[in-house]
From TrEMBL:
The UniProt record lists the keyword DNA damage: no
Domain called NADP-dependent oxidoreductase: residue spans: 33-165
Keywords from the named record: NADP
Keyword NADP: yes
Superkingdom per UniProt: Eukaryota
Family listed: Belongs to the aldo/keto reductase family. Aldo/keto reductase 2 subfamily.
Descriptive protein name: NADP-dependent oxidoreductase domain-containing protein
InterPro entries the UniProt entry points to: AKR_Detox_Biosynth, NAD(P)_OxRdtase_dom_sf, NADP_OxRdtase_dom
Length: 167
């Protein structure tokens, strides 16, 4: 590679999604100005009259977003009963692009509420440290990754103190 090639300006991004912005002064990451929300990615909530997508249409949406320069995907442990994370993980693994994405997910909701295998589900919901650990473990498996870029509380449970959650 010549010096000229090394210092050549980068080509323009394919869309405005590729004009990345600093996420936070403390985070040091640059993200698309619009995050792709994963609420409708998955095929489980059609029975509730809510948006659901087949795997193929989910992958088409994800491909379009990424190919236009998008790099920020937001989902949650319970979106589409966990299927959102599964589809996103399978898609990212198949394209071998996990390290080019910033994946945020949330916990608080019980992603196992339809699973009769778990007779006692009290630890799968809320903002307790145990709920967080169980959710992260499940999310990592579904997302087919070893790390989550951003984990946050989906909604406050009004019973867990800040000190109790983190320490």
């Amino acid at each position: 590679m010549s010096v000229r090639e090394l210092f050549a300006p980068r080509p323009a991004p394919p869309s405005r999604l590729g004009f990345y912005r600093k996420f936070s002064t403390h985070a040091g990451v640059h993200l698309s100005p619009i995050a792709l929300g994963g609420l409708n990615i998955g095929d489980k909530w059609h029975e509730y009259g809510m948006g659901s997508m087949t795997k193929e249409s989910s992958f088409e949406l994800l491909n379009s977003y990424f190919d236009l320069g998008g790099n920020f995907i937001d989902t949650a442990n319970a979106y589409q009963d966990g299927r959102s994370e599964e589809f996103i993980g399978e898609w990212a693994e198949g394209r071998e692009i996990r390290d080019q994405l910033f994946i945020a997910t949330k916990y608080t909701n019980n992603a196992h509420h339809h699973n009769a295998k778990f007779a006692q589900q009290i630890f799968f919901a809320g903002n307790s440290a145990k709920s967080m650990h169980l959710s992260v473990e499940s999310s990592l498996k579904r997302l087919r990754t070893t790390y989550i870029d951003l984990l946050y509380v989906h909604w406050w449970d009004y019973t867990t103190s800040m000190e109790g959650s983190w320490g």
